[in-house]
Amino acid sequence: MKRKVRWRNVIGYGAADLFGNGALTVASTWMLFFYTSFGGLSPVLGGTILAIARVADSLISPLMGYLTDHFGATKMGRRFGRRRFFLLISIPLMFIYVVIWVSHMGFWYYLFTYLLMEAFTALVMIPYETLAAEMTDDYDMKARLSSSRMLWSALATFLASWLPGRIFAIMGKNNPNAFLTLGIVLAIIFILAIGLTYFSTFERETDGTPEERKAIIEESRNKGENPLVSLWNMIKDMGSVFRIKSFALHLVIYLSSFTARDIVGATYVFYIVYAMQSNPTEASNILTVGSIIGIPCNLFWPKIMSKLGPSKLLRIMYLMMFFTVACYAGLYYGSAAGTSWGIMTLYALQVTWGISNSGTGYVPWTVYTFFLMWMKWSPNNGAKVFLPAS
């Protein structure tokens, strides 16, 4: 590499995850409550929007991956980089994150704007995910870049939990413009974070040696193949990994874990405000406790998992999460709604939820990266199949 990765590059690289984790955390936590309280939608319609967006994302992300992989052969890609270019154009497009919080607009408006936000998030995060590999080939340095992302991500979780409550306290819990203000404030923060990442990072095709730049451009070319055919071949190649039973089982665990966490996250504010008869500010305060609990957990999971193993650790985390959710049900059916002791119990349960939520996210994702590290392309009867490296 022509340029060395320094500490300012490491710190700046992780800043974009303030948007990646923060934007989706705020949306997944508060979106359903916003739709039902200020958007005029029923819980069924609000949940339908979130479900459709998740399905759409499974199509949008591969398309974005294809686009960014081949963008290096274009004039804009050669000038700004095939990854960093998308960080740059995300700055003027950040208004998309604001328009999703406009109140009383109806189902089709909210469906369209939420899908637009999903596409916008993929536009930023898919190229960003691969930027570390563009900056360095050194494993230790990649680990530092990943650690920087984890720290910024933890800060994003705290911000997503803490900031809404402060805005509700100032503007009023029943003020629909509070959510619009939240969107504007976060959009400004996200622009600053992405700008920091853009000016702190680099790519081989723009800052590398002439040989590296030429190799990247050649790699990005379609080489005469129809783009739709190339995309279809890429999708088939991705599907080949399901021939590995252990990978397929892990993917089920991964998707189940994150789907369960998303469901609880999307309904938790709804549960506190309506089932426990509290208010959005209190919900924000309770969520903040859980986000703080989860931050130091990321420092301990590697050592704990090395001793217990991922399977045993994940089972413990599942049991803790099931216990916490059972307690939520017990509080509702045990006449704790509207009582001070019920709210205090929710604060206490954020300890077990914060730990289990962090653990069920850490284990599948970490094991998934090991799959990626130890897989290689290998021909099998004319087809490309992922096989574990020996």
User: Number of helical runs?
Assistant: 17
Q: How far apart, in Å, are the first and last alpha carbons?
A: 28 Å
Q: What is the CATH third-level topology name of the largest domain?
A: Growth Hormone, Chain: A
Question: How much of the sequence is in beta strands?
Answer: under 5%
Q: Helix fraction?
A: over 70%
List the helices and strands in order. Answer: HHHHHHHHHHHHHHHHHEE
Oligomer: single chain
- Describe the largest sheet: 2 strands, antiparallel
Tell me the structural class: mainly alpha
**Which stretches of 5+ consecutive residues score pLDDT under 50?**
376-390
Cα radius of gyration in angstroms = 22 Å
Mean pLDDT: 80
Describe the structure.
With 390 residues, the chain is mostly helical. Strand 1 (375-380) and strand 2 form a beta hairpin. Helices cover 78% and strands 3% of the residues. Mean pLDDT is 80; it is low at 376-390. The chain has 2 domains: 1-221, Growth Hormone, Chain: A; 240-390. The protein is globular, with a radius of gyration of 22 Å. The longest helix is centred in the last third of the chain and has 34 residues, at 340-373. A two-stranded antiparallel sheet has the order 1-2. The chain has helices at residues 7-14, 17-38, 43-70, 75-80, 84-90, 96-99, 107-129, 131-135, 139-171, 177-200, 204-207, 210-220, 227-239, 245-275, 280-308, 310-333, 340-373; strands spanning 375-380, 383-388. The protein has 17 helices and 2 strands. The two termini are 28 Å apart.
